[in-house]
Amino acid sequence: MTAPPSTPDLAAELVALLNLEPLDTDLFRGPQRPGANARVFGGQVVAQALMAAQRSVDGPAVAHSMHAYFLRAGTETQPIIFRVERDFDGKSFANRRVTASQNGATILTLAASFQRPEAGLEHAVAMPALPSPEALRSLDILAGDYADRSAQAVAFLGQPSAFDIRPCRVPAYSQTFRRDPVSGL
After folding, report:
1. 59-98 core/surface letters (b: 16 or more CB in 10 A; e: else)
2. Sequence-ordered list of residues with C-beta below 8 angstroms from that of 6, at least 6 positions apart, any chain
3. By the 8 A CB rule, do 55 and 68 touch?
4. pLDDT tens, 118-159?
């Protein structure tokens, strides 16, 4: 039995998936996961489409709005082609539309708006006081708490991930008791 991939290995795989191959101006091919043979994961297609849009924006800009529509299932055995349409390039904002396709059929459309950095009004709810990440338990450690209660929770929480997730309180999907909803506002 082989050991599950480590977090750095999974993070490197994620970065590689986002490294799109330029085919022409505003035309890219997205790499597939090595050894894949099933449907493509929707988050992968969205992330690759957003990366294609980002690469078409001149200078620094941050995506602040995005809408995606999944139209058909994609397969991990065929390359995904991303075509970017430059709808608008202004002084502060840029808008892009991306069509992701396989074998000539659209599997996803994405619209994104980007904003270039600039001084201006800022407002937000203050960040709450939280423990440091080192003081919190990772999901794989939390999985041990459920070993005698839920095989499904153990399987979910124990999955290898490219991200080190450390919840501040019991995640809602794994709690075993009823709790009132909480709002941060």
Report:
1. eebeeeebebeeeeebbbeeebbbbbeeeeeeeeebbbbb
2. 160
3. no
4. 887 778 888 888 899 999 988 888 888 777 777 787 787 778
Residues 6+ apart with CB under 8 A from 48: 17, 18, 20, 28, 30, 80, 82, 100
Among 83, 90, 140, which Cα is nearest to 116's? Answer: 90
The angle formed by the CA atoms of residues 173, 71 and 33, to the nearest 5 degrees, is 65
d(CA 131, CA 72): 42
Is residue 48 within 8 Å of residue 30, measured between CB atoms?
Answer: yes
Please tell me the predicted confidence (pLDDT) of residue 141. 82
Of residues 93, 91, 80, 85, the one with CA closest to residue 111 = 85
